[in-house]
Amino acid sequence: MNEDDRITIHPEKPWEILQDILKTGNSEQLKTFLDSLTQIETALAISRLEVEEQTALFSMLDPSYAADVFEGVPEEQAADIMEELTPTQAAAIIDEMESDHQADILAEMDDEDVEAILSEMEPDDAEETRAMLSYPPDSAGGVMINEYLAYPQDMTITEVLEDLHQNRESYVDYQVQYIYCIDGSERLTGVLRIHDLLFAAKSAKLRDIMIRNPLHVLATERLEQLQDFFDEHELVGVPVTDEEERLVGVILPQAIEEAVEKRTVSQFLDFTGIVGGEEFRSMSLWNRSGRRLSWLSINIILNIIAASVIVYYQETLAGAIALAVFLPIISDMCGCSGNQAVAVSMRELTLGLVRPREVWRVLGKEISIGLVNGLALGLLLAVVAMLWKGNYFLGLVVGAALMANTIVSVSLGGILPLVLKRLKLDPALVASPVLTTVTDMCGFFFVLSFATLVLAKLG
């Protein structure tokens, strides 16, 4: 019986097959099996392995093949695995990846581990990677690639074709649609279509046939600006320059789509209280617990503050116990109204339709909608209260409280993201718990303080 026959295949549990192969130490068999899996199946199988097994798996693969396997692994998990490899092993794999994927994985790792890996890379490659890591992830520099072809504008067509032929193995994975022309200071001066390169006179210089003053974007431009650029210009790629117009990379439209999707996921996780990036159940217990508790521990303190209002008015609540039914209703309704305002402000900040300093403008807009919606919701709740208990004063108290708190919640929800942005805090992370606490506290206060004024009429 050969080694292949000793492995029982369970397609629904590919990680079990990987575990069996890892025990044999047969790298060729490992590659054959991984080739039979889709990217999703590969990510699933690797995520179910123990840390030691993951390390063993990537240690058995040659760097180029390992880099391909990492393409299907989420960046956070890939970073964790990289940190378990030796710096030499990790550097060899990183060096085989596309530049944008390199930056994405290294950005998830500890600075100490990143430096250890970069120190094992060729100095020029390490310097390029450091430069990409210096850009914010939601900027042109953060999503660009540096696999592109650029030649001095004084080169001839013959010289360029010779270089392409001599280095065809290195360039084969480049997504070449254009060739970029630079001057002696590496400033972008023109762009050349492949068609022009193939059919121009061989003795012609690039500067004579290139398209001058090509469209380009700055490395500091944000995702919203890049989205607008590609919406306006249907290009398969655009060169990226620094402030001195030196060519530093190229952006592909699919990179923008991926970056926007990644940011949306990150904002959703922050908004729901998963702090520190994406969470996977394959991560360690303490890592996952810390990401959740960091938000929940703050939230419980804020809720205790809100509940203290009820303690202060406990005699009023005891005298009109029917109010207890309406407290969660008012709290929840105003929380929903406030979160609507937060969502609008977050969206407008993202699109650049509002600036962090325009607090008074946003406040005026939200007070207006708060008055309208608060009146409508307050009247509805007042009618329900009066029909239930037959007490007009109960309806007046809960209706007025809902109206007042709606105005507060939408006003705060509208301006809070702007204020947090000016304070350089993450609005998506901080706005929700602060808004929830304040609307709960104000809702309890309005209901119980209004009730105190007419307590004798509520019996």
Topology, element by element:
Blueprint: H1 14-24, H2 27-35, H3 39-47, H4 51-60, H5 63-70, H6 75-84, H7 87-95, H8 99-106, H9 111-118, H10 123-133, H11 140-143, E1 150-152, H12 157-166, H13 168-171, E2 178-182, E3 188-193, H14 194-199, H15 206-209, E4 211-212, E5 217-218, H16 223-232, E6 238-241, E7 247-251, H17 253-271, H18 285-312, H19 314-319, H20 323-351, H21 359-389, H22 392-422, H23 427-453
Parallel strand pairs: 1-2, 5-6
Antiparallel strand pairs: 2-3, 3-4, 6-7
Characteristics of this structure?
single chain, MgtE N-terminal fold, CBS-domain, Tetracycline Repressor, domain 2, four-stranded mixed sheet, disordered N terminus
Taken in chain order, the helices and strands follow as HHHHHHHHHHHEHHEEHHEEHEEHHHHHHH
Outline type: elongated
Q: What summary fits the major beta sheet?
A: 4 strands, mixed
Q: Low-confidence runs (pLDDT<50, min 5 residues)?
A: 1-10
The overall pLDDT average reads: 84
Which strand order do you get reading across the main beta sheet? Answer: 1-2-3-4
Percent of residues in helices comes to: 55-70%
Estimated share of beta-strand residues: 5-15%
CATH fold assignment of the largest domain: Tetracycline Repressor, domain 2
The tally of strands reads 7
**Could you name the CATH homologous superfamily of the largest domain?**
SLC41 divalent cation transporters, integral membrane domain
- Please give the radius of gyration in angstroms: 30 Å
The end-to-end distance, rounded to whole angstroms, is: 88 Å
CATH class of the largest domain: Mainly Alpha
Number of DSSP helical runs = 23
Under the CATH scheme, the architecture of the largest domain is Orthogonal Bundle
